[in-house]
Design a protein that fits this description.
The complex is a heterodimer of chains A (108) and B (342). Chain A is of the alpha+beta class. Chain A has four helices and three strands, in the order αβααββα. Chain B is mostly helical and 342 residues long. Chain B has a two-stranded antiparallel sheet with strand order 1-2. In chain B, α1 packs across α4. Chain B starts with a helix and ends in a 5-residue tail after the last helix. Classes of the chains: A alpha+beta (108), B mainly alpha (342).
Chain lengths: 108, 342
């Protein structure tokens, strides 16, 4: 298998995880760059080209809300879970736990 | 203007959304955060080199902008299969029809030998132009349909699993043997239409073409006897075209279409029998060496009818066998499948 197709498999695997990771991090308000750093510290690296469009998509779906604020002389856009996002997150977490246990059994 | 400004402007040029300035502001804010972070880590003030390398890591403006408009296919997944199907039907038909009409045009204009090459070249250029225009027109139509809100969901409602009315029990019964190749069918149709056109409108081109004194002349070969059979042949060809159209719209063979095809082929067998027993289908034009040529043409035309007759009988037998198999729920042996296509 070529390196490229291996990377495509990894990307595909991560794609589904990223939404849940981002939503779980936005229970507290954060701006984009702090979110990238937080995810990186937690072990999940996402580049800006993936994260920012995703944040906008989640916002247009009503799961996030955002506002611009000036902080340290710089305008920053802060994102946080909307009411709908807060209701969805526990259900997604539950689903995720189910998937993980199924896959663990399957791969054991 | 510094590099960050230049970069943000370049990204903006590729953003086709009402939120362009909002996205630009956010990218700027992120770049400044990253720059501050990097300056702290490297323990030095940001300089041009640091900014340029940061922007390079961020990515090409086109790529960054494209990430904000993920649904940018000209024709999306839902329409693509119908788009391909229409191209597969329209393009071969268009090419063959153009080829036939251009060849007729070329032949009836009685060209000089040196004009033939130019005529053929022109014909292919015209065909290429027509095919490109057709592809363009079909593509533009689908690209517009893709972008009209509501149309896509209406068109693709049947395929969406969300459609509650959809029931797998309503799927037509289909086995390997019931399917057919669309390209074969389309070729069949175009060929039959060509036969209809040639024998009814320009029968004089079926003949011996010769070049004398730089002028092409064609001497018709078909006899009067042939033209007495023509109305019956027309009915057969018309039936064949109607059957092909019906098959194309139904998508598979069914009992009724097999029966119709069987009937048409029985008619063809009867016609072939009558033609074999009747007077010659060809006649040798006045002024040519009658003896050997006449015999040769006679033998060739009669043998062609015999071959067609035998193939049709074989194909009919296979269809009857297939109908019986279908009723008893068994599949046809693969060796016979190739004879079954009428």
């Amino acid at each position: 298998m070529t390196n490229e197709s291996y990377e495509n498999f990894i990307l595909e695997l991560r794609r589904g995880v990223i939404v849940l990771a981002v939503l779980s991090r936005l229970e507290q308000e954060q701006y984009g760059y702090s979110l990238i750093n937080g995810l990186k510290e937690a072990g999940l690296e996402i580049d800006q080209g993936t994260l920012y469009p995703l944040l906008r998509r989640l916002e247009s779906q009503g799961l996030l809300q955002s506002n611009w604020r000036i902080e340290a002389d710089r305008p920053r856009r802060y994102y946080v879970l909307s009411e709908e996002g807060r209701q969805l997150l526990p259900r997604l977490k539950e689903e995720w736990t189910g998937i993980v246990s199924i896959m663990n059994r399957m791969l054991a | 203007m510094n590099f960050i400004d230049r970069y943000i402007t370049a990204v903006g040029k590729h953003l086709f959304t009402r939120k362009r300035s909002d996205i630009q502001n956010e990218i700027r804010s992120t770049l400044e955060d990253m720059l501050e972070d990097r300056s702290r880590k490297e323990g030095r003030e940001p300089d041009e080199e640091m900014i340029v390398s940061l922007i390079k890591e961020f990515g090409r403006p086109e790529k960054v902008a494209a990430a904000y408009s993920p649904d940018n296919h000209l024709i999306g997944d839902q329409f693509y299969p119908i788009y391909l199907l229409i191209l597969k039907i329209v393009l071969p038909v268009l090419a063959v029809v153009l080829l036939i009409t251009s060849l007729f045009g070329l032949l009836v204009s009685n060209p000089q030998p040196d004009e033939i090459l130019v005529g053929v070249g022109k014909m292919f250029l015209e065909m290429l132009g027509a095919v490109i225009s057709a592809v363009g027109a079909i593509t533009i139509t689908f690209a517009i349909l893709e972008r009209i809100p509501g149309i896509k969901s209406e068109f693709t409602k049947e395929w969406n699993n969300e459609d509650k009315d959809w029931n797998p029990r309503h799927l037509p019964e289909a086995r390997e043997a019931e399917r057919f190749s669309i390209s074969n069918l389309v070729f069949d149709m175009v060929f039959t239409i060509a036969l209809l056109v040639i024998f009814n409108f320009v029968p004089e081109i079926v003949g011996i073409t010769s070049l004398s004194d730089g002028v092409w002349t064609t001497i018709p070969l078909l006899s009067d006897a042939f033209f007495t059979y023509l109305p019956f042949l027309n009915i057969l060809w018309g039936l064949s075209i109607l059957l092909d159209v019906a098959l194309l719209s139904r998508g598979q063979w069914e009992t009724w279409s097999r029966l119709t095809s069987l009937l048409a082929r029985c008619m063809a067998i009867a016609m072939a029998g009558v033609m074999l027993g009747g007077p010659s289908l060809v006649n040798v034009p006045i002024g040519m060496d009658v003896g050997s040529l006449n015999n040769l043409l006679e033998v060739i035309s009669r043998q062609a009818v015999v071959v067609i007759l035998l193939l049709t009988i074989l194909s009919n037998l296979v269809t009857v066998l297939r109908l019986i198999m279908r009723l008893t729920g068994r599949n046809l042996p693969p060796a016979l499948v190739k004879f079954a296509h009428p």
